Amino acid sequence: MKIGISGKGRTGKTTISATLARCLARRGRRVLAIDCDSNPNLAMSLGMEAAAAARLRPMPGRAFDEPRDVAELLAEYAQPGPDGVRVVLAARVDQAGSG
To answer: CA 90 to CA 39: how far, in whole Å?
Structure first.
């Protein structure tokens, strides 16, 4: 099952995503939560400690330039979160105009 949440800004997408991810994980589903927001807060919304959230590294575009195994990418970039949810950071904007 794949679920994507989209919508206007400040409408609760991150909160809904985090709640849904944790509920599914608690029911035994394997959950990979991908934060694609330019201002990523999904890890904190999931309940990850600040230190664990700070260890998240965004997957660079080059990660997809060459064929790579999904398990290899997850081992490199995913961090464990509460209830067994794995979290991946797909993007991060550190400075305007840097991308």
So the answer is: 11
